[in-house]
Amino acid sequence: MLNVSRVTVENMEQGCVTDERNPRISYAVHSDLADTTIQDAHISVADWSTSTLEQVAVPYEGAELQPFTTYPVRVDVTDNYGQQASAETSFETGRMNTPWQGQWITDSSYRFTEKKVSPRPMVFRRTVRVVRDKTIAQARLYATAMGLYDFTINGQRVSDYYFAPGFTSYKTNLQYQTYDVTDLLSQGGTESTVLATVTGGWAVGSFVFTRVNRVSAKRQALLAELRITYTDGSVDVIGTDSSWQVALDGPVKAADLYDGEVYDAREQLTSYAENTISGRTVAWHRASAEKLAIKPNIQADYSARVREHEVFTPISVKRRDNGELIYDFGQNFAGVVRLRIKQARVGQVVTVKHAEILNPDGSLNTTFLRTAKAQITYTCREGDQEYQPRFTYMGFRYISVHGVEADHIDVQGVALYSDMDEIGSFSCSHDGLNRLHSNIMWGAKSNLVDIPTDCPQRDERMGWTGDIAVFGPTACFNFDMSRFLDKWLRDVKAEQTRGGGIPNTVPVQGYGFPATMPKMAIDWWGDACVLVPWAVYCSSGDKQILRNMYATMKKYVKACLFWAKLWGRGDQRYIWNTPSVLHFGDWVAPDVPQMSQWQARSPWTATASLNNTSRTLARIAQVLGESEDATYYNQLADRVAQAYINVFTDGQGKLKNEFQTGYVLPLYLNMFPREQREVAVNNFVKLVESNDYKIGTGFPGTPYILFALADNSRADVAYRMLLNDTCPSWLYEVKQGATTIWERWDGLDENGECPIGDDGTDIMISYNHYASGAVGAFLYSRVAGLEATSAGYKTFRVKPLIGGGLTHAQASTRTPYGTATSSWTLHADNTVTLSVTVPVGTTAQVVMPDGTSYQVGSGTHSFTSPVSSLSPAPQTEVKVATDMEVR
Q1: What positions carry a catalytic annotation?
Q2: pLDDT tens profile 805-814
Q3: Residues 236, 242, 243, 249: what is their CA dihedral angle, to the nearest 10 degrees?
Q4: What share of the chain is helix, strand, coil (3-state, %, to 5)?
Q5: Residue whose C-alpha is closest to residue 315's, from 725, 754, 749, 739
Q6: Mean pLDDT computed over 81-102
Q7: Each residue of 336-355: pLDDT tens digit?
Q8: Which residues, other chains included, contact 479 with Cβ-Cβ below 8 Å and sequence gap of 6+?
């Protein structure tokens, strides 16, 4: 049977509201017949239609889309067996640049001048009366803010979305959200009360570790329109203006992304129309118009919205001598607590603090939060009640609760992260590796909160570019990152300096370096503008993200080359050797203890970076049909590789200054000449063996170290490093009870205590920092053997790497065409059985451990072969399709 299993518009299956002129439509097909191929496909949107065999990002090219309109979408497919199938969805257009009838409003009487704190929350309200003799056909609320907003109508929240309007480079990009509020409005002439709470958030509140505030606006502001369409076709539009009221009173007394939330339930506006709270008059007054200092482009929400996901109940609770309750949720994650308090007294204060680890005495370790208070203060009303924060989030495994007895409170932990489909899986016969994969997943979930952050707990949570640059392929295997990273990359593009540099964090939002240095480029961190779009393209097959970022990439690589050529002659003009303080180098490499020593390795890491971005940009140019650019960037990559070998090695495959990352990068990136490669591998292996197979790489080398070994006939060494459980190693963290990936390998000693002192990093240790989880790519593409050979897995290879004593491994990922899987089992007779699932519309090359190769179409296939060796054949570059080069 044939069926159209999935249809998306702008990478959403349902609920898409867009301002795009040419929204992209994709679909996937499933069949229970082997070797199914699509013979004809017909996509129609209202009166427009097209016939195409393309399944990914087919653009709408019909008449100009009108605003505030719902468009039906239909896909009809016929396969090679004559079977037919169809599916339907729809999308809605947003404002499409229709001028706002509402205006920005604020409380102009509020003078927010305090430093390093967030402003007092504002509450806005407006009563709305629907025409008595008319029936509502549809009602939409369009809203955005400077700050974070949350709307209710008649006491009901309009959305489950957290942190609207989202974190963007506000000076350039601002999203608005669209809410269907048809069922929330009272009909028949009865009044409805619309209420919005607006806090400081990223735009106005304190942010970055220096706790700057008022970056985008001097105080909060709200812009909204309620558009009511009646069954007779008439429309009422109610926009924000001076008819709205505002007050600084309300239950949310304080809200800060780092410090937490203060909430007084005694002052809830229970009917959302009172003028008094607990006998006290609310100081409602007219809202005033606000003129923003910035002029962003306001577009319909194009993000993956932050929502609630997994809910955790504590695995233990302990009462300390001071009456404090310590709860352990058993999992480190990003989110909030949900409190259910029973038989509370009026005025009873419950305080909740958060932490990732405990001190030896069982108390919360809040030292590593630095200035972040990460605290909830809740003042109770009488009786039973429930509360969870709306305008903050924390990174934590443990909480302390003070002010209530254990039998009077139920506690849950609610994970918050962006609403991305979880599309990947991995498991094997080794429990430690299964836990490692879980840690990778939770490290990702905890740091994919509207932007790709570095960590979710301390006074940071910033969009560090280096982390996602190396983690991108792993993220894209496990999650549908299309909307999430498309949103973030718009800000990368917007934040690029006029000289081509990319800031270390995006959005910049108060963190100047190196944005204040227009030409400054930082290797591997700035590389995100090239590596992240490439990772998204490889997983999604959508070229548009490459087109959108192409000029940005070229400008960035030009800036990198500028710095390399600034000093020296000959080879030195291709060695990126600016002062080490302007780089991160081999960041958090465990074989050197000081930050300055990590940075001192920047000539090696930066030069390899220039080779990598140039080579990747050449591939991108080829995809986009820019053949002259492709030739130029390939030649540049070759020249940089030659300089690296000539300057940093003895010309015979040995580094003059040996360290693991110094070998990993040129080996992984094919920078060594063929005649030197084997010697370089042997020298690298000696270095690994002398370090007892422990990892010695920092951010730039860690994602690639196992590939550098396994793809050069040393899978035995790669597996010994992967399965090592002594510090520093991935499984050491697992052995110490980690449930996420750590920022530093030595985060806890063998006794479970943190040895990190003041080493120049400002006591920098996070236990939820996903960068080193980039090893996931090796688990999926080598251990399980599932790897794309053309964009979107249109073609892919299944070539499992048997070794390490593993007897089973499986991985799967949902490609744009359907789910691809690889699952192998090693039997007692030293034979391997491999099962492969190939989606309709794709083909796979299956390479068995004995070297036998098969080309297969859609369906599930099984193969068996003997295992002749635990090491793979020597590396060869495979070019299965013209648009990707796979190592």
Answers
A1: 460, 743
A2: 999 999 999 9
A3: 120
A4: 25, 30, 45
A5: 739
A6: 97
A7: 999 999 999 999 999 999 99
A8: 420, 421, 422, 423, 424, 444, 448
